[in-house]
Amino acid sequence: MPLTRRATLHWAAGAAAALAAPALRAQAWPTQPVKLMIAFPPGGPTDITMRLLADNASKLLGQQVIIENRPGAGGTLPAQQLLTAKPDGHTRAQIPLGVFRLPYTTRITWDPVKDITYIVGITGYAFGVVVPADSPIKAWADFVAYAKANPGKLSYGSTGVLTSPHLTMEDIAQRLGLELNHIPYKGSADLMQSLLGGQLMAAADSTGFAPHVASGKLRVLNTWGENRLPKFPDVPTLKELGIPLVQASPYGIGGPKGMDPALVARIHDAFKQAMEMPNHIEVLNRFDQALMHMTPVQYTRFAEDTFRREKALVEKLGLAKPN
Q: What interhelical angle do 45-61 and 278-286 show, nearest 10?
């Protein structure tokens, strides 16, 4: 039976409203302060750079973006909090690389790829190995020689079990036949305090250690990028030392599963603008970090690819959970 003109108009209006609903919800966001959880404690490079990013975004959005520190568990706690959050754009989390390793090392009931909405890729880290300036270990060759002569006695710290610094060091150790003593910390601030206090022989961390190098308290043995860092032009990369590894550990921001694409696009655009502001680029440069922008589509693809690669690394290092 054909529709009357009034019914046709009513149906068309309803259909248009349904199609417009996600866009309208996106326009309404944010209606309250936004929580952004980060995976490391206050005072480290991630905390400092993400707080500035949040401040930039707050000014753009007209609502405060509040940083909430959730350290521990190899940087995976913020991502896990997304599982019970509403997909309304008011709760988001930093997604470190450790999130993609979790299912291979721990029994969990969620999927890091399918159960997170990937919104925007932001940056990555510049890593390296440092020792106290008064250490008898003067170069990477000394580190290797001491570790070989003293199996299990060379203590090094990282920002947590199964983080990129930990896994990369274990990969290096396996390649070189070394047995190291790994001591995990919750973040860079605590790690540096222990290294400077003499509780550790070395540390693998992002270049938040640079001020201690500049003040003459620490010495850099190597860095982990594709090329030497401008801040440390005399320090070799792993590749230059004959170890074919590059580690930048890219990260970004994710939200709960099931977010409206229009809302995701709105959040992406706001944070892309915030991350490209000169003050954010300047603070990233302070820690030798570069912008690594990824759109939602690119970031989702990165998550899928990384999930597969991390499986191979965890299995190679013998760290996979038993079946």
A: 180
Q: Tell which residue, 112, 214, 111, 218, has the closest CA to residue 157.
A: 218
Beta bridge partners of 255: 117
- CATH fold of 127-241, please? D-Maltodextrin-Binding Protein; domain 2 (3.40.190)
State how far the Cα of 140 lies from the Cα of 240, in Å rounded to an integer: 11
Equal fold, 33-124+250-316 vs 127-241: yes
Residue 255: count other Cβ atoms within 10 Å of its Cβ: 25
Superfamily of domain 33-124+250-316 in the CATH hierarchy: Bordetella uptake gene, domain 1 (3.40.190.150)
Banded model confidence at residue 115, pLDDT cuts 50, 70, 90: very high
Q: What share of the chain is helix, strand, coil (3-state, %, to 5)?
A: 45, 20, 35
Closest CA to 162 of 170, 152, 154: 170
Predicted structure pTM score: 0.82
Burial class (CB in 10 A: 0-12, 13-18, 19+), 274: buried
CB-count exposure of residue 19 (10 Å: 0-12, 13-18, 19+): exposed
Contact yes or no for 117/259 (Cβ under 8 A): yes
Judge whether 92 and 119 are in contact, CB under 8 Å: yes
Instruction: Give the CA-trace dihedral at 27, 65, 92, 187, to 10 degrees.
Output: 160
In eight-state DSSP terms, residue 237 is: B
Domain extents for the chain? 33-124+250-316, 127-241
Q: What is the pLDDT of residue 72?
A: 84
Give the whole-angstrom CA distance, residue 133 versus residue 62. Answer: 47
Tokens of 204: 């693998």
pLDDT at 320 over 70: yes
Question: Do residues 118 and 301 lie in contact, with contact meaning Cβ atoms separated by under 8 Å?
Answer: no
DSSP assignment string, 264-284? HHHHHHHHHHHHTSHHHHHHH
pLDDT tens for each residue of 49-67: 999 999 999 999 999 999 9
